[in-house]
Design brief:
The chain has helices spanning about 5-15, 25-35, 50-60, 65-70, 80-90, 90-100, 105-110, 120-125. By secondary structure, the chain is mostly helical. It has two domains: about 5-70, no CATH class; about 80-125, no CATH class. Helix 3 packs antiparallel against helix 4 (about 65-70) and helix 5 (about 80-90) crosses helix 6 (about 90-100).
Amino acid sequence: MKESTKTLYEAVAKAIGMEDGVAPGPREKEFLDDIKAEHYNDFLSGIFPNPISILIVALKIFGLHELAERAMAGDFDGTSAEAREYLLSDEGRSTAKRLGVTPDQVRRAVLRKDRGTSADIEADNPFRESA
């Protein structure tokens, strides 16, 4: 299980009382199984085109509004390591190519050790519109 998925799974399990020995109901178990299957992972979903948006709706349906707020704040987004792993995968490279990202831009993104400030990241963003 990826780190971002593990964080989400643990937060949901705690919120529905599993830490206190409460067994999840069938709907909650199905939701937890979907989380374990990486359906809400930014890079691995394969089911949802916008997995975090779907996650937010699902959390609200289950009445987990605090976790929905955390999801909107990015607490369950894929990690930098997960992003690099995806970018180096065949699927990630194919996606980058379709989006017009050059292999050199992929290499720079993967090799960057210190992401710097948000201004630094935006300056190196291959998807930004040129001025």
